[in-house]
Amino acid sequence: MANARRVQRLYDRQASRYDARSASRRLDALRAALFAHASGDVLELGVGTGATFAHYPGTLVSLTGLDVSPEMLSRAQARATGLPFPVRLVQHDFQTLPYGPASFYTVTSSLGLCGIPDPAGLFGEVRRVLRPGGQLLALEHVRPPQVWLGLVADGIDPLFERFVGCHANRPTPHLLREAGFTVEVLERRLAGILVDIRATPT
């Protein structure tokens, strides 16, 4: 990932207070509704501190979590203890995925796709590692559909990228369609900025 070291440093610094700052009933509700659809062998991109773990069905075959930040992963490891499915946590820049073709039935992400510098490249990698009939489940903030809010997002995007490590104006559903996915937006919140997405390769 371009700027992966900078992003790693950013999230390493935030790890100890990340959960307290990002806790949200709204996010938990969206995660719970979305990740209930996960099944089989699952790959989570940007697993962070493991805030999603409680929202997965207990029937998963396995969960593999990738994150660039070792500090985040150390906190995720504590959350993985006692889950009813095996969990493997890997420190890795997930712009490219270190797995063979057709390795997973579900790929998931919770607010992890907005910081990738080459979305088309990553979505090609997701297609590659998904098994036939597989799915991508993603909770994302996206460019607002309203014209004036979209312009605001465009204006603040450079600051978001520098200090938060992600983009405020990324049109993720559109980019997935361009990459050859059929996209279903399952839920919209916050004036359409926060969305639950289910995408399947066409």
Automatic annotation (TrEMBL):
Keywords in alphabetical order: Methyltransferase, Transferase
Domain Methyltransferase type: 43-137
Molecular-function GO terms, alphabetical: S-adenosylmethionine-dependent methyltransferase activity
GO BP terms in the entry: methylation
Family matches, as InterPro entries: Methyltransf_11, SAM-dependent_MTases_sf, Thiol_S-MT
CDD domains, per database record: AdoMet_MTases
Domain of life: Bacteria
Residue ranges crossing the lipid bilayer per the database entry: none
Record protein name field: SAM-dependent methyltransferase
Natural source organism: Deinococcus koreensis
